[in-house]
């Protein structure tokens, strides 16, 4: 049975411990007790996406709970080595905890984790981090809406969440509630999927995308007019080349070297039996083109 190490981080009081207790014991803790370090271990069955019969695989999930308070900033990273997946938690009704996702927690994980050994994640261009929004049940709480309105703030919106997931390169986002257990199981199933299955799916998707676009000329929208001019130059050159090959025995090709400006025409000359080399050289000079590489 494969073992997966999952470390949970985030601001204090966002519900990290409640998330773990609710998942492992199916009960919601009523009292808040700040965590220093705590470990939970459980077995989870996750559907195998590669199975056509819906078979499930068993995994041993080792859950590491951490303290979010600043006084533990030096101690907390000691739990990061050999982590398979991080869960960065924020509370959907606490915008400050969401801001700290990108300003504190993501930088701390990057600074204290060696990703050079995670080849799959490097290939798919993602970090082994799943973003988790807690206290989702409060989105439907009128009293909480009134409280936020009085503070001139609001719940963290989905567009804001999507932007952070994309900018930081997270594996995805899950929203849950430890009080109602809504989305609780999905959090840890997604965590397993992010470690075991999703990296390979992303790599295969990127390879297919790369192969389908390998023959296309990359265009920058900001310079589309200049690129169109380059395409016109290539078309005119091909037309010119075809009209002269049969008469003079010339052939040409247009080489493109990105990031430079240089002559790129290459020409060959079939030997003329009539000895008219001067005329050939004259034609060669006429046909020489300069191409500004964009």
UniProtKB/TrEMBL annotation:
Protein's name according to its UniProt entry: Uncharacterized protein
Any one Gene Ontology molecular-function term assigned to this protein's record: GTPase activity
Source species: Eremothecium cymbalariae (strain CBS 270.75 / DBVPG 7215 / KCTC 17166 / NRRL Y-17582) (Yeast)
Chain positions covered by the region annotation Disordered: 261-294
Pfam name, any one: Ras
CDD domains named in the record: Rho (cd00157)
Any Gene Ontology CC annotation: endomembrane system
The keyword GTP-binding belongs to this UniProt entry's keyword annotation: yes
GO BP, sorted A to Z: apoptotic process; cellular response to oxidative stress; small GTPase-mediated signal transduction
């Amino acid at each position: 049975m494969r073992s997966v190490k999952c470390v949970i981080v985030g601001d204090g009081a966002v519900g990290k411990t409640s998330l773990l207790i609710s998942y492992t014991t199916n009960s919601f803790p009523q009292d808040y007790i700040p965590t220093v370090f705590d470990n939970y271990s459980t077995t989870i069955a996750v559907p195998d996406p590669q199975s056509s019969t819906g078979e499930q695989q068993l995994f041993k999930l080792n859950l590491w709970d951490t303290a979010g308070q600043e006084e533990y900033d030096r101690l907390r990273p000691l739990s990061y080595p050999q982590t398979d997946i991080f869960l960065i938690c924020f509370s959907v009704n606490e915008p400050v905890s969401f801001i700290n996702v990108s300003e504190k927690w993501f930088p701390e994980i990057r600074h204290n984790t060696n990703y050079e050994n995670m080849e799959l994640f490097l290939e798919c261009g993602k970090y082994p981090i799943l973003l988790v929004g807690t206290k989702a049940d409060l989105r439907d709480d009128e009293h909480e809406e009134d409280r936020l309105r009085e503070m001139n703030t609001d719940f963290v919106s989905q567009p804001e969440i999507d932007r952070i997931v994309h900018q930081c390169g997270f594996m995805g986002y899950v929203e849950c509630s430890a009080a109602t257990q809504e989305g609780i199981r999905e959090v840890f199933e997604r965590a397993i999927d992010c470690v075991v299955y999703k990296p390979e799916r992303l790599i295969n998707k990127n390879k297919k995308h790369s192969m389908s676009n390998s023959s296309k000329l990359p265009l920058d929208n900001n310079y589309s007019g200049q690129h169109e001019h380059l395409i016109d130059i290539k078309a005119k050159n091909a037309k010119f080349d075809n009209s002269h090959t049969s008469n003079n025995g010339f052939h040409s090709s247009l080489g493109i070297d990105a990031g430079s400006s240089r002559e790129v025409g290459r020409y060959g000359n079939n030997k003329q039996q009539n000895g008219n080399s001067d005329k050939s050289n004259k034609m060669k000079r006429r046909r020489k083109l300069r191409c500004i590489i964009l």
